């Protein structure tokens, strides 16, 4: 089985820690390892290093190689331009199809937390076994929801279809995108839905068949790029042809058009969290809402429900009577915001373009 971890995002919602020069997936957000390193760690030792591929931006290839030094250099694939994750997935899967057309492959993302790692591995093993029996399927891995999230996509889950290695595979009933508050509560209360993690298992041949059917432009461009592989003009052709890719995410490109009978869903509590924003990180790490989540030199008194991350080892952050705040201190920026205002961070950073603060993005 092969694994592909996508690590190409910029992560503006985790500013000021996450910057263009070193996005969130390369930073120590949880413990003393980056989320990319944690994503690779949770695959070991069941996956050999040569079976793990990482897709990132061309500017971050050396950074990935430094952080994950045991991954073969050829397994680190740098996109020459940003074209959303539809083309990114298509290119890597097309690359794998040339070598391992019917080998099961798991698609993963680099900025997540998975606390129940053994349960996660059990799901992968059962999914691999099922895909080896029928390569014309996709298995979506969903998280049993902990609350009525309006910021995540949801999957509608059908009846039990198959059980493999004590893992239950349900019929796939469709995607439900970020719902409003009322609809999210309905999903959460019904027990018929799960959070969509963006994780799925299939084969390169089947996935490329979907790209060929639903996005023929992306399919033909990937084939054209690969025709230049191992030639002197590859880098030039890669950049030119990849620049012609439509900017489209994977869901819009193929997954939402997928015939439902070709998919299964696994729903488990694997302790998954998307730490793409500070409030999401707080929720992922807290035991109860009133907990303070801190990192670095921090001292809080009579304070609750705060996230305080201090990356400046020379200065102590002291807080008294604080509630519902986000405080992030780096060497050049101190961010203080209400947790409910985190959604405004990305818009604020976008306004820095063309100003004296542009170097902080």
Tell me what portion of residues adopts beta-strand conformation: 25-35%
> Helical region count?
11
Characterize the overall form. globular
- Looking at the structure, the CATH topology of the largest domain is Spore Coat Polysaccharide Biosynthesis Protein SpsA, Chain A
Strand order of the largest sheet: 6-9-7-8-10
The CA-CA distance between the termini, in Å, is 38 Å
- Give the beta-strand count: 17
Tell me about the biggest sheet? 5 strands, mixed, barrel
Low-confidence stretches: none
- SS-derived structural category: alpha/beta
CATH class of the largest domain, named Alpha Beta
Question: What features would you describe in this structure?
Answer:
- With 361 residues, the protein is of the alpha/beta class.
- The protein has 2 domains: 2-277, Spore Coat Polysaccharide Biosynthesis Protein SpsA, Chain A; 279-342, no CATH class.
- Helices cover 29% and strands 26% of the residues.
- Strands 6-9-7-8-10 form a 5-stranded mixed barrel. A 4-stranded mixed beta sheet has the order 12-14-16-17, covered by helices on one side. A two-stranded antiparallel sheet has the order 5-11.
- Helix 2 (61-67) links the parallel strand 2 and strand 3.
- Helix 7 (216-226) packs antiparallel against helix 8 (234-242).
- The longest helix has 17 residues, at 117-133.
- The radius of gyration is 21 Å and the shape is globular.
- The two termini are 38 Å apart.
